[in-house]
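Session log. Operator J.P. requested a structure for one protein chain; no other inputs attached. Running the standard single-chain path with token output.
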Amino acid sequence: MRIEFDSLGQVQVPDNALWGAQTQRAVVNFPISSQKPSASYVRATAIVKQAAAIVNTRLGLLEPTLGRAIALAAEEISRGAHYDQFVVDPYQAGAGTSHNMNANEVIANLANLALGGQAGEYKPVHPNDHVNMAQSTNDVIPTATRIALASETPRLMVVLEQLAGTLESKAIEFDGIIKSGRTHLQDAVPVRLGQEFGAYALAVRRDSERIAAALARVKRLGIGGTATGTGLNAHPDYHREMLAELSRISGIEFVSSGNLFESMQSSADLVDLSAALRTLAITLTRICNDLRLLSSGPSNGLGEIKLPALQPGSSIMPGKVNPAMPEMVNMVCYRVIGNDQTVMMAAQAGQLELNVMTPIIVYTLLESLGILTTSLDALAHKCIAGITTDAERCLLYAERSSSLATALNPYIGYAAAAKVAQEALARGVSLRQVALERGYLTSEQLNIILDTRAMTEPGIPGKQGLE
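Structure written below.
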């Protein structure tokens, strides 16, 4: 151990650690979840520090040798090095001061080692005076949060495009499969299996559009507000220069929030993104529930589709195969919906000049993005791409449905059609037989009217054929 000092006094720090006294206090104070900050959040924080060193040097506030050493150390971290040195639990003191100081101390020690100094001495580079120059936790953490989210969200959108494309391919493949529609889980007029899958694809695409719209707002940054939004201790050009530098380093086009006070007080843009992810989770839950229901059985359920067999489904029932992938996605979606509730509660907890709950917002949002991205990639490739159908079974259900009586409405009226449906169900015979027995229509007319394929398109079944 080595001895370091902060404003509260002496602290023992592991001798091989690149972090310092303030980080060590946080490690001791917050042994909460055994979790660490995500790599994307660490990278985003390092990018803020790199950009600040470059901008402060350019503006004449930071000595070039120190600025270069800080920027290079931060760049090392942003490229994936030293992640093991970021050790503060996500559940920490408000605003993220501990995470910010973890970054400041690690970068300062790396810079000093590069300049011939020793870890823990903070000469010539100091974590607060130099690495944190023109910054406050209060603008660094919201900015790093937005950079991390802006970096990770496009990965999900790529997967959503793949998922929608896979569903569209199945819609084309299954376009000729006639099946019974179902409303209220009861028989309804026929649909094509391809129509169901086409609707799934469009729902996913529309959710992706909602996420893209929210992402655009996440790219609004308030860096330069420092402690309360006033920009105290930052150069007047710092905010503008930081936007340009952060955009250059990250490859993402960031813009000004337009009001640095609003940026610090409000987490509404993050709530917006979380809500879009929640909406996607609701869509996916519905789709996966349908997949599980349509594949149920296979002997004693609907059994209209068959999901790829990925693993044995029971430790006691030989041969049983479960809808494992949709079940997994359902659980992911429940987590995302719960995370959205966390984000909402944290966002409304902001007070006056600052929302101190940002650490839990970034932690939960990045978790949601991560598990949605990986789970939906698996769903598309390991499940939906391999779905097959039992066309004969689908058609059997469609043709014996009492809801086919709907096609009789234009010819014999709703009341008469209802009696035909009720009698057919009670006697266990077909609609056709009852309609013929009652003399409502001829066999030739019924052949045209009760064409299940025609019922899956707009119009009155048989209208043209009977004219």
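Operator note: The radius of gyration is 31 Å.
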